[in-house]
Amino acid sequence: MRGVIGKRELVELGLSPDLWAGGAKRKRTTRPTPKTKERECASCSEILSKDTFPRLAACTHEPDTCKQCLEMWVETQLNIANWDRIACPSEGCSQLLSHDSLKDQVAEELYNRFDELSARSALRDIPNFRFCLASGCTSGQIHDSGIEGNIFRCAACGFRVCTIHDIAFHEGETCEQYDERRRQEAERRQQLKDEDKASVNTVERVSKRCPRCETKIQKNGDCDHMTCSRCRHEFYWRCFAPHRGPQGIFTIGNSAHTSSCRHHTRNLPQ
């Protein structure tokens, strides 16, 4: 069944879980017999009067989805921007729902949403038709840039739009000036990114982690004898050999360095 939706799906879609057709608000009755005037909803499995099952104009089968489940199905499809591909929720039926199918069968507010989306889609197919970009304005009109220039002015609210960039008009700037400013801003952003990257690379190059506590330490002089400011561990900068302890440089000398270190005993000039 295509239209089965649970409480979790309703919450994910931003809808109240009270809309769940399978909730406890309806009292379950016994299953209908062929002679009763009731039937079971294929979506919520509730036993309801046949009068609560809308008959859709485009479908030839017996209706098996109650009005509440149908409305929930339509609302879900509208919320996921699938308004023009809303199919009948009945299993095995792929008939797309039209204006005639939904009118008088779902709540007026829901039908009006469907109708508005349909109308806006039709208007978009009209050459040179543009919708106003102002927040809260749903108006639109035909604008021929070849005749009226690149400034769209909404006849309803007066909001101005640059038709070249499809944004609120850039006051005080020509399109060329706007493009140049945006280019310079983009270059500056890239420059800052490059500087940040170079700074990180520099830090990585001149800093190492303490071999004991892993605090990052930056070398700021020529001496390779380092002391961690956090744990006070003393070590040699180039090979991390410890200065103190039974295996430290102060105890056993240059042989404490790693064998590849230039200060290891075997690597010193003889």
Explain what you see.
The chain folds into three domains: 38-125, Zinc/RING finger domain, C3HC4 (zinc finger) (Herpes Virus-1), CATH 3.30.40.10; 127-181; 210-269, no CATH class. Helix content is 30%, strand content 12%. The protein contains seven helices and eleven strands. It has a three-stranded antiparallel beta sheet, with no helix packed on it. A two-stranded antiparallel sheet has the order 1-2. It has a two-stranded antiparallel sheet with strand order 3-4. The longest helix has 32 residues, at 175-206. The relative contact order is 0.05.
The portion of residues forming beta strands comes to: 5-15%
Query: What is the spatial order of strands in the main beta sheet?
Result: 5-6-7
How many strands appear in the DSSP assignment? Answer: 11
Output the CATH homologous superfamily of the largest domain.
Zinc/RING finger domain, C3HC4 (zinc finger)
- Category from helices, strands and their pairing: alpha+beta
Secondary-structure element order, as H and E? Answer: HEEHHHEEHEEEHEEEEH
Outline type:
elongated
Q: Give the terminus-to-terminus CA distance.
A: 87 Å
CATH class of the largest domain: Alpha Beta
Total domains: 3
Unreliable parts:
21-29
Q: Quick one: biggest sheet?
A: 3 strands, antiparallel
Radius of gyration: 36 Å
Q: In CATH terms, what is the architecture of the largest domain?
A: 2-Layer Sandwich
Q: Mean pLDDT, nearest integer?
A: 85
Number of helices: 7
The proportion of residues forming helix, as a percent range, comes to 25-40%
CATH topology of the largest domain: Herpes Virus-1
